[in-house]
Amino acid sequence: MxxxxxxxxxxxxxxxxxxxxxxxxxxxxxxxxxxxxxxxxLQEHHAVCAKHAMVDPGYQSVCLTTWNTQSKELVxxxxxxxxxxxxxxxxxxxxxxIYLSLALYYYKHRKAHLDPVWAKRHLRWHYDHHxxxxxxxxxxxxxxxxxxxxLLGTRKYPEDGLY
Length: 163
Prior knowledge:
The protein is mainly alpha-helical.
């Protein structure tokens, strides 16, 4: 396997690990404090999704003039892009995989919250994350791919009695 392929695969794994960590510890951990910037995830996004059976109307248009869940998510994603920019010159394939993962994250996350039927079929782990009892669930932290949920034992299923 070539060095570029190893870099690219490492970038995909790194991005998925980062997604798992950020969702669990920042969006749900720090986001549990209503005074935190990260509270938007639980206070806005999860609350709206619970009310509308997974649909988040904030994703209906890409509008950065409205300060909502989607615009906050885009600001965070752009911050991650900028944070990793210096790496691009050292490890271009790894950084490209991270950037691809960020683009796929946004595409899949947005589509899942506009089309729950699609989400249930193609992003079941994220669908389960939103529709399970959050106090009992405590899992399904990945959005793009469920790799780290499987690896760390946090992939939860409806059969587990979490709904």
